[in-house]
Amino acid sequence: MQTIRIGLVEDNAALRRSFIENIQYFEQVKLVLVAVNGLDFLKKIQEMPVAERPQIVLTDIEMDGMDGIQTVAQGHEQYPEIQFIMLTVFDNDEKIFESIQAGAMGYMLKDEHPEKIVEAIEDVAQGGAPMSPSIARRALQLLRNAKAPAPQTVPSGSATTPVEDLLSRRELEIMEMIVEGLTYQQIAEKTFISPHTVRTHIQHIYEKLHVHSKAAIIHMAIEKKWFGFKNR
Fold first, then answer.
1. DSSP 183-222
2. DSSP code of 131?
3. Model confidence pLDDT, tens digit, residues 57-96
4. pLDDT value at residue 1
5. The CATH number, out of the four listed (3.90.960.10, 3.40.190.10, 3.40.50.2300, 3.40.50.150), of the domain defined by the range 4-130
6. Per-residue pLDDT for 38 more than 80?
7. Which residues, listed in sequence order, are joined to residue 109 by a DSSP beta bridge?
């Protein structure tokens, strides 16, 4: 696998230094941009040659000048080829939901081991949507606490189709695991199928729901108030 170019947006100097020191030990990634807030990030990335820009950017949420959620929203709009991961101390529902709405592809807590952060970067590079376990539980709770109108539908051509009719029971089961933040390998172990088969099911889910990422599935599930998929 090619080295993944990454960027960091962090206003705390000590945390920046710690991240830079830790990340250098991982050959899978290369830190090519460091910014102190969203405005600094947008200025620096505009000045970079396209081929040298980060493919994935990790950003804090609470920052002066421009916070992480605004950074993701503007960065996602101006540079759709760049993926964003929230790297923060916040694990409350509002921040999770706002981050997903802004276009973040992952949400990791800063106290995660550096190895887990690198795994999250690799997951996003492969089309995943990683979350720290506590974040995944909160995201799932957002769905289960929602009052869902019936039937829940998704676009299907010019009409709408109930999601239960559009996806198979196995696909619904895997979709909930996606929301929980499980990796392909973890889903495979829980469902007793191969990771390749998991990828195939997820690709079918993408096609049926007209989405292109796990984060988009989570966003759609929250927006449409789907919850308790296994019990349907």
1. -HHHHHHHHTS-HHHHHHHHHHHHHHHT-SSHHHHHHHHH
2. B
3. 999 998 988 999 999 999 988 998 999 999 988 766 677 7
4. 58
5. 3.40.50.2300
6. yes
7. 88
